Amino acid sequence: MFNSPRPSADDLPTNAQLFKATAFALVTASVLLVAVVVPAEYGKDPTGIGTMLGFTEMGEIKEQLAQEAAADTAAVAVSQVRAVAGAPAASETAEPETPAAAEAQITEVTLAPGEAAEVKAAMAQGDALEYDWAVSGGHVNFDTHADAPGIDYHGYDKGTASTGEKGTLVAAFTGKHGWFWRNRSEGTVTITLRTLGDYSEITRVM
Known about the structure:
By secondary structure, this protein is an alpha+beta fold.
């Protein structure tokens, strides 16, 4: 194996030489820091050397870009805050309106003992009418039926001594469809009829 000769003590640098070399390196680094690094990074040129070499302008450009980036970030943050502030709160969000439920039409008929009445609804064939009638003060005989030009009578249902009925009446044909009542009680009665569905009008015809 090749072995290089060990240096003699005269070939090694002295302590004074090492100190001078270290001091020179520190001075050089300080000069470079003040004359080059500071102007190039921060746009500050205390010695004027950075301006001569163009480093100061480079630093000023960097500083300007940094300021613009900070301004853009602040503007985005402000716009986001405004957007959040302007957004409606969850409780203020408009709810879809629920269509109002159709209300039943109410017809009242008062009958003295032995008196009769008839209520008819105008309906087209196939139309459906929901009904609910009740008697207060007694009971009645009833006949649910229909008529039309050329049709004198079409029966749906009938009964005696009734205090009320409810159901759905489906028109067998286009015409008048409804109820005939006669008070068979000893006192005056009131019939309350509630109707809801497909009909153009409902009237008392008797």
